[in-house]
Design brief:
Rossmann fold, 4-stranded antiparallel β-sheet, 13 helices, NAD, transferase, EC 2.3.1.286, zinc
């Protein structure tokens, strides 16, 4: 090694340490330049632009750039020439902002284009040997559950500083898309469903548990991890009322070992370790065997990070064909065989029509949650204040607390409620 280093030095080639030092110096220089134009003032002799420093000066340059060239004074034009680095930085920001805005826009294909694209998707579904479906929040918006990154999404509203309206998720029911997916699985056209959603609507649609991976958990399921294997308790209400990031205890106890029960939700920044309902094994095995992947209503900004779902270790030609249905841009669009810009329910209705499969309606009397749910014990009747899923007419609720302690207060806490609490923080009194 010493001989190689000496030979490199003799040949005038910088060593690894020297190259790293040079790269670090360049990074520091760029940072210094960026900070310099933020702190630089306009100099003497410029009366139309106030002599300011820091971010205020940066804003002054931005205001000048918003004017048409013909509307700028000579002094303003000279100020821009003297601060070309600030101008270039602002132009880069404008380009990035325009690109981001374009990606957030919802685009819908016209009816003729939509039908043509759905016909292509139908042909792919028929020919697929192992079709896997990935779903996101977009398939549940028809059930009045907001998505995250849409124009009215939870994160979009919070980034704008707006409060998020309350929503009783327990009243949501499976959408047309949920029922179509269930039917496609029944017809053996879909082999597995991988969902980012915590709303439990895939389970309630009648999709078998073994064919479902709920990567981020299920709001109706709490578990005892003290039992081996972990013991599940399906409830008739949202169990996440008291839970949040790194705090998963629901306040109830296991009826077998008296261990603390916890929710199954995987928050941003957490790593899911539960075998069920996450079912990572089922998801990775399905992805490994997939020849077609259909993504419905997902921005894919989270799913793209799960390399095992995309077979990225294979050559591009051997990866599954990718079909995307979403109103907004996704980071996988360029890799997709087909991108359909449309609402999930509209697309799935057309797809089922092309496949000549009748779309089943959601029937509450057949909702599996009523047979899967574990009744609360007598001492647990008042352990929650969330609304219960209303049972079908003439069928008794499996929980002794048929009314719960539901109120009209906005939803707080839990996997979805954390967004509400963030958006509703009260300002401190001066």
């Amino acid at each position: 090694m010493e001989v190689d280093t000496a030979a490199a030095a003799a040949a005038g080639v910088p060593s690894r340490a020297e190259r790293k030092a040079l790269e670090k110096a360049k990074i520091v220089q760029r940072e210094n330049e960026r900070n310099a134009f933020k702190m630089r003032g306009p100099g003497k002799g410029v009366s139309s632009v106030k002599a300011v420093t820091g971010n205020e000066w940066f804003r002054q340059v931005a205001r000048i750039m918003k004017k048409a060239e013909g509307a700028r004074t000579a002094e303003e034009s000279r100020a821009l020439l003297r601060h070309r680095d600030a101008v270039e930085e602002l132009r880069r920001r404008q380009v990035r902002s325009a690109v981001l805005k374009r990606k957030q826009e919802e685009v819908c294909d016209d009816s003729e284009v939509l039908r043509t694209k759905v016909a292509q998707l139908a042909e792919a579904v028929k020919q697929a040997q192992h079709l896997v479906v990935y779903t996101g929040a977009g398939i549940s918006t028809a059930a009045s559950i907001p998505d995250y990154r849409g124009p009215n999404g939870v994160w979009t509203q919070l980034q704008k500083g707006q409060a998020v309206c309350s929503s009783d998720l327990g009243k949501a029911e499976p959408t047309v898309t949920h029922m179509c997916i269930k039917m496609l699985h029944k017809e053996n056209l879909v082999k597995h469903v991988v969902s980012q959603n915590c709303d439990g609507l895939h389970l309630r649609s009648g999709l078998p548990r073994h064919a479902l991976s709920e990567l981020h958990g299920n709001m109706f399921i709490e578990v005892c991890t003290s039992c081996t294997p972990a013991r599940e308790y399906v409830r008739m209400f949202d169990v996440t009322e008291r839970t949040s990031l790194h705090r998963h205890g629901t306040g109830r106890r296991c009826s077998h070992c008296a261990g603390d029960l916890r929710d199954t939700i995987v928050h941003f920044g957490e790593r899911g370790t539960l075998e069920q309902p996450l079912n990572w094994r089922g998801a990775s095995e399905a992805a490994e065997r997939a020849d077609v992947i259909l993504c419905l209503g997902s921005s894919l900004k989270v799913l793209k990070k799960y390399a095992c779902l995309w077979c990225m270790n294979r050559p591009a030609k051997r990866r599954p064909k990718l079909y995307i249905v979403n109103l907004q841009w996704t980071p996988k669009d360029d890799l997709a065989t087909l991108k359909i810009n449309g609402k999930c329910d509209d697309v799935m209705n057309l797809l089922m029509e092309d496949l000549d499969i009748q779309v089943p309606l959601y029937n509450k009397a057949e909702d599996p949650i009523f047979s899967l749910a574990t009744p609360l014990r007598l001492e647990e009747e008042h352990s929650h204040s969330r609304s219960l899923i209303a049972p079908p007419a003439g069928q008794e609720d499996c929980s002794p607390d048929t009314q719960g302690l539901a109120t009209d207060e906005p939803v707080q806490g839990g996997w979805f409620g954390r967004g509400y609490s963030k958006g509703r923080k009260k300002k401190k009194a001066p």
